[in-house]
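Table S2 (continued). Query chain:
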Amino acid sequence: MIARPWGDKIELKSSISEKEPNLQALAAIGDQTAWITDVAAVSDYPNLQQLKTGLNQTEIVDKDWKNQGKLSYKSLAGDRLTLTYQKNGALGDAIINGEKRVLENWPVLDSPYIQQKLYSGQLEIKVPQQPPWRLRATLMGPTWEMDK
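Corresponding output:
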């Protein structure tokens, strides 16, 4: 998985769990944050140089990010994904390859490794052969949790 964060500040948070001090997280911090993620198969990009070449073919357009909350991405697969975030709302306006998509009742993220249901306030990450961990939104700020 490849990820590109947007925010007022991007930080590598070290030791995010007292129980698991080696866990780290990349955090996008601010009032207006976003992540563009893409997935690459080793069979398509067998070495780092081929992955770099593929990533050089992707395109991110963020000229309207600050004033309109709009990001556009041409993926490794060549798809054009555009999302305009709604201020004070969880759902945005999505366009995939020129076709408008309705995002109601779709999960924010849904893969074998990362899940976040819409409006859940919780991101769950499952790494093979590791206990799952969660990032939860609370009134006091984000909270990291890990199963035993």
